[in-house]
Design goal:
The chain is an alpha+beta fold. It has two domains: 89 residues, Arc Repressor Mutant, subunit A (Orthogonal Bundle), CATH 1.10.10; 58 residues, Dna Ligase, domain 1, CATH 3.30.1490.190. It is 34% helix and 16% strand. It contains five helices and six strands, in the order ααβααβββββα. The chain has a three-stranded antiparallel beta sheet. Strands 5-4-6 form a three-stranded mixed beta sheet, with no helix packed on it. A hairpin with a 7-residue loop joins strand 2 and strand 3. Helix 3 packs across helix 4. The longest helix has 13 residues.
Length: 158
């Protein structure tokens, strides 16, 4: 029996539904991505090794590639950043990226259905997705920036 549509499918069910073999490295990578959305390959490797200490770099890269090709994982690459991975939810969401620490957070699309942006000219393409990155400073980086700012000179007027 499948979990309700609001509950995520277990990793082994995701793999089977995508027509992929269930392997320990793939399970470890999917589990790592559930725990660490928007992780780069190095972070996925570290997290996967918590569940499967013997998994190699190459196995993790191969899994990320296979899972992305199967549509289970989405690769995003904000400008100036390494590729990051998230379990594909098949929803229409965008990303907020901190210019300070590089944190990435999901942001729902304002209009709700893909694609939420309409190109002025499609040049004959059938557009099915639009990627949006919002850039700014997260609260922690803003707080750090406030602490690093010099004291106000308004009190020391001549």
């Amino acid at each position: 029996m499948r979990p309700s549509s609001t509950a995520p499918l277990p990793e082994h069910a995701l793999l089977r539904d995508a027509g992929l073999r269930v392997t320990r490295p793939r399970l470890a990578v999917l589990s790592a991505l559930r725990a660490h959305p928007h992780a780069d390959a190095a972070a996925v490797l570290t997290a996967a090794r918590e569940a499967l200490p013997s998994v190699s770099h190459q196995a993790v890269y191969d899994c990320l590639h296979a899972l992305t090709e199967a549509g289970l994982v989405r690769s995003i690459q904000p400008a100036g950043s390494a590729a990051r991975y998230e379990i594909r939810r098949h929803d229409n969401h965008h990303h907020l990226v901190c210019r300070g620490c590089g944190a990435v957070v999901d942001v729902p699309c304002h209009t709700g259905s893909a694609p939420c942006l309409q190109a002025q000219s499609d040049h004959g393409f059938l557009i099915d997705e639009a990627e949006v990155y919002y850039w700014g400073l997260c609260p922690a980086c803003r707080d750090g920036q406030d602490e690093a700012a010099p004291p106000s000179s308004s009190a020391a007027a001549p």
